[in-house]
Amino acid sequence: MQSQTKKKFNIYVKIVNSNLCEENKFPFNKKFNLYTIKINTNDGQREISRRYTNFYELHEKLKNKKIVNLPKLPPKKIFPSETELFERKQKLQKYLNSLLTRDDAYKHNEILEFIEMEKEHYLMLKDNVDSLSTNENSPNLEKVKSFIELKKSKSSDIKIKKNFFYSNFAISAESSDDERVEENPIRSLISIFLKNLNYNPKEKCKIVQDFEEKLNVKKINHVFQRDEVYKLLFGDNFEEGFLGGLIYHCGRIDENEIGAGKCLEFLSKLMDYQHNLDCEFFISILRLAKIPQIKSMKLDEHLKTNKKKVLNSCFTILKAIVHEEKGISINSILVDQKIIEKYCKEFY
Question: Are 66 and 149 in contact (CB under 8 A)?
C-alpha cells in the first residue's frame, strides 16, 4: 500500500514591492509608501496593497484587545533614508508573518481582515492539508465547507453578521411556531435534551454524549439561531415550569459531579472554534449573563477536582468569557483566591 505523506499547512507573506504614492489632502500633498504584499498559501498566491498606516491600525486594535506576545511593529520615521525604508519593509514582512503563524491567528478577525481572508477559508486550508489528518482538535472540514457554501448562498433566509451566521427565522415573527420547528429540527432536539437533563440527572453523561452525537449529524447543514443558543445555555420556560440549561447543570456538581463535569466539557466545546464554528455567537451571548449566573457554574469547585479534562474545560470557558470592559474578570467569577493563584498563568 502506497504511503501518503501529510502536507504541512503553510501561509507566508512577502513584501515584493514598495511604491511612493501621493495623497492630496488640503493644504498639503502627503507622500507615503504603498507596499505590495504577496500572500502564499496551500491553494495559491494573491496580492494585496497596504501602507504603514494600515499596519499601525492593525497593531493598535490587537493591543487594545490585550493580546499577549505581539511582535514589535517597526516605528515610523518622518524622513527615512533608503536604507531605513528597506529595513522597515523587511521588519513589516516579519511582523505580518509572525501574526499569521500564531496558533490563535484564526481567533482574531483583525488579522484575517488585514489579508482579506475569510475565517472559514483559513480554517479549511489549515484542516485540509490532508484527508488523513488525525488531529482531534482540528475543525471539522465538512462543517467548514458547508459554512462556505452558506456564505456563497444568495438566499434571503441567510444573514451574515461578522463571522457568525443565523437565519431570518431567529428574528422574524412572520413564521408560525410549527413552521419554525419544521425549518429547524435542532430546536426540538434541544428541547428534548433539556428535558432529559432535568428529569434524569443521574444519566447526564449519557444524555450529553447522545445529544452531542445527534447534534454533530444535524449541524452539518444547520446554523444555530439566537433563540436556540439562549435555550441551550440558559434553559427554557414552558407551561409546567422551567428547564435549566447547560449553565445551570454545570453547577449541579453536588448532585452529580461526573455529570456536571460532562456538561462543562460540552459547554467548553461550544466555546471553541475548533469544535464549533458558531463559537463566537455562543461566547457573545454567554457574556450577556449576569455575574451570579456565571458563578452558578461553580468553576471553583470544578477546578478543585484537578481532573485534566475538567481543568481544560474551565480554562477554555474562562478565556472565552472574561471581558474586562464588560466587567467580567477572573476575580468576579472565581471566589477562591487559592484557586486563582494556582491557575492564574492559565488565564492570561
Answer: no
Query: Rounded to the nearest 5°, which phi and psi values hold at 3?
Result: -75, 145
Judge whether residue 131 has pLDDT over 60.
Answer: no
| b (16+ CB within 10 A) / e for 311-324 | eebbbbbbbbbbee
User: What whole-number distance in Å separates Cα of residue 219 and Cα of residue 143?
Assistant: 8
Of 166, 168, 218, nearest in space to 189 by CA: 218
Model-level pTM greater than 0.90? no
Q: What is the pLDDT of residues 33-60, one digit of tens each?
A: 899 999 988 778 889 999 999 999 999 9
Q: At what angle do helices 308-321 and 257-270 cross, to 10 degrees?
A: 40
**Residues 16, 48: Cα–Cα separation, whole Å:** 11
CA-based angle 117:120:125, to the nearest 5? 80
> What phi and psi, each to the nearest 5 degrees, are found at residue 42?
-60, -25
Structural domains present in the chain: 11-127 (3.30.1520.10), 141-347 (no CATH)
Q: Taking Cα atoms as reference points, which of 287, 274, 161 lies closest to residue 223?
A: 161
Amino acid at 275: H
Cα-Cα-Cα-Cα torsion 303, 305, 310, 312, nearest 10 degrees, comes to 50
